[in-house]
Every structure is written in structure tokens, then in C-alpha cells.
Amino acid sequence: MNQSIRVRYAPSPTGMPHVGNIRTALFNWLFARHHGGTFIVRIEDTDASRKVEGALEDILESLRWLGLDWDEGPEVGGECGPYFQSQRLDLYQKHARQLVEAGHAYPCFCSPQRLDDMRREQTQRKQPPGYDRHCRELPQGEIDRLRDGGTVPVVRFKIPLQGQTNFGDLIRGDVTFENSTLDDFVILKSDGYPTYHLANVVDDHLMRISHVLRADEWLSSTPKHKLLYDALDYKPPYWAHLPMILGPDRAKLSKRHGAASLTEFRDRGYLPQAMTNFLALLGWSLDDRTELMDRKELVEHFSLERVGKTGAIFGMDKLDWMNGVYLRKLTTPELTDLAMPFLERDLASSIPRPLDREYVLRIMPLLQERIRTLGKAHLPSGDAPSGGELPELAEFFFPDNLQHDPERLRGKKLSPEGAREALG
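Above: the chain sequence. Below: its structure as C-alpha cells.
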């Protein structure tokens, strides 16, 4: 690629970052590092009503934990800032006015009640929901009257009434949408805040984003973005829509499959190098057989040509296996240092604290071959852990007074006399 590669990860702080969200960040980071490009973090925080306390900190901590350093963005700065959309409102308002003046957008004064009634009628008639373009051709005099009356409009984009919108996707090839299926969508809300559609187009242009790698769910929004780029006379970036992540039952990934935020995986005792390896293989592969790859190898080999079109299966068993492999690669002192905080936290409260590191160091070789996580799973689904948790396996070594049920010490086929003889 001859042009300068600039990609962005643009999360919204409306929740803790989940696996799919961070997989998108990882693919952007790998793509930038492979091509010697720039990885940008931009915070899309214009929906203040949905902002979750602590979400921004969790997003940035997840990136740091995986080692996904960013070249521009929060805490780093850069020549294209600010990198919080809430600090860029004047830019979006300026572009919205520009589109209205050029005849590509229009003010819409429809009340929420009218829009609700319209959608209800469309549903009753079994029509696809969409704005009926009531305000699209309002005379200027009517617009002035409504404004003077105190009604604050939204701004809607004018979708061409005929024809098609085409764009290329680096994963899916050429994509075509009939304009008749597209809605006159809102680009600026009545409070002066932009919708995602306008904000991401304006920011991607001004931040010189060359490639937009994002989740497959945004594919249906891309014709709207292409039309916005055309109306603003901006060159669009290359698009690449990443395959969805599915559970083992091929349903959309959710907490019932064991999915969690990245910091939850960290707190369960997964290693960042194992998590990076696992996430990279959710939708991308080097070949049909290679599964274990360190960060350097991932950067060296990553390419969009090997990203699949079909959904990627998230399997906890595979993640547990991979984490166990990485745990066994550690030296005994390295593993002990990592394990101590988890053992202090998760061993039974009856075991005296603080734990003796030298004692843990001695027993660790007996545990290393069997462990898959450093901490207890605390699965969101409430399912029992699958085994391989270090605290569960280590607990046997700590009580001073061992009291075991005699029946559990006797094999199913042994008599009490035979068990005594075997133990004797």
C-alpha cells in the first residue's frame, strides 16, 4: 500500500468493552503495525444519556492490558484532536449547515408524537418503517414560521429517491444498496449533537483515516456514509467489515456463552498474550493449522486477505486451553509472581494470610501442568467452572489439619479393609 495507513478505534463509553469490541481494536492495531501506520483512539461520547460511569477508564485499561498502544488519542494527544467527540460539536454543526445550504439536507420539525403515529400506521399496513419525508420540501416561509414559533428541528439527510449506492469492501467485495430502501436519516439532533452517521464521516475525513475496519453490523449503514462523503465532496476511506463473533450455538455472542468485558477476563486469571492470540483468531487465520502465535508473529503476518466473511465462533474451551499453554511457557518464578495475588484473593478465607511465597514457589511445579486460569472463573451464566483453576487445585496444599471424608478416599471397588491396606 502506497498511501499512509491511518486507522481508528472509536468506542462509545456506554458500557464496558466486550470481546467483539476489543477484537475490532486488535485488528485495527495489527493492521496499523503491520503497515507501519498510525493507530488512533477516538471516543464517541456524544450520547451523554447512555454514558456509563467508569466505562472510558475500562476501555483504555483493556487496551493497555493487551498492549495495544495508540499513537493519537486520549492521554497522548495528536495533531487531529480533540479526540473526544463531545469536544467537536462545532465541527458537526458546521457540516450540517453546509449540507442544508447545498440542498443535501433539510430541517425536520416533526414531533416525537407524529413520528410514533407514523411508525404505528406503517406497522399496521405492514410497511417497512421509515421517515415519510413530510418536511423534505417545506417552503422557506413555513420553515421560518416554525422556527419563530420556537420549534427546534433536527436535520435530516436527503437520500436520492432513485438509483443505487455502490461501494467497495475489502472483505466482502462490491456492495450495492437500492436507494429506495434507505431512510432520510437524522444527522444532527435538536440539541445540537450529531448522530453517529455524521460524526464518524466528519471525523474520519478530518483525521485522515485511510481504512475503516469495523464490525459487520455497520455494513447496512455504509451506503448512508458513502452518500455523505459524496455530498461533502470528500474522498471516502477503504471499508472492511469484520465478521460477527458467535457463540458455539452460532447465536450472537452474549454473556450466557461466557463472554465478558476484557477486565473481567483479566480478573479471572487469563494472560494478555493468550487473550491477544485468541482474539486474533476470531475471524482471521494465518493458515489452516497454526493456532499459537506471539504478538510479533501476529503483526508480521496480519492481512485483510485472510479475514473471513462468515461468523467466528467464540469457544471458552479453546480460550482455556490456549491460556493453559501460555501459563506452562512461564518459568516457575514468573508463574509464582503472577499467581500470588490470585491465591491471596481466591483461596479459602480459613487459610492464613499472607501466603508464604517460598512455599508457593515449591508447590507450583506440581500445579503448572494442570492449570488453565490463575483465578476462579465466576462465570456470568452461573455454570460450574470447567476445571483447571489454580486456587481450586492449590487449596489442598494449604490447610494445616486435613480432614477428608473416608468414603472419598476409598475407591468405588475397594472395601474399607482394602483401602487401609492400599494406604498403609
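The first strand starts at residue 6 and ends at 9.
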